[in-house]
Amino acid sequence: MQAKLRMIIIYTLLTVVGLFMIVPFIWMLSTSLMTQAEFNKHESVFVPKESSYIWKSAAGEKRVLFVMEKGRESIIHILDRDNKIIDEYVSVSSSELHLIRKIPSFTWSNFIKAFRKVPFGTYFSNTLYVSFITLIGVLLSSVLAAYAFGRMEFPGKNLIFYLFISMMMVPEPIYLISSYLLLDKINWLDTYQALIVPWCVNVFVIFLFRQHFKSLPKELFDAAAIDGCSTFGMLRRIILPLSKPVIATASIFTLIGSWNSFMWPLVMTTRPELRVLQVGLSYFNAEASTQTTLLMAASTFSILPILVLFFIAQKQIIASFAKTGLKD
Amino acid sequence: MKTKWKISPYLYVLPALFLLVAFRLIPIVMSFVISFFESTIKGTGDFIAFQNYGKLLSDKDFWQSMTNTFWLVIIVVPASIVFSLLFAVLLNQIKRLRGLFRTVYFLPFVTSMVAVSIVWKIIFNEQTGLANTFLGYVGIEPQKWLSESRGIFEIFFSGIGVQLPAWAGGPSQALFAIIILTIWKSLGYNTIIYLAGLQNIPKDYYEAAEIDGAGKFRQFFRITLPLVSPTTYYILMMTTIAMFQVFAQVYLMTDKGGPAGTTRLIVYYIYDQGFDKQEMGYASAVALVLFIVILGLTMVQKRYEKYVNY
Question: Which residues, in sequence order, are bridge partners of residue A56?
Answer without folding.
Answer: A61
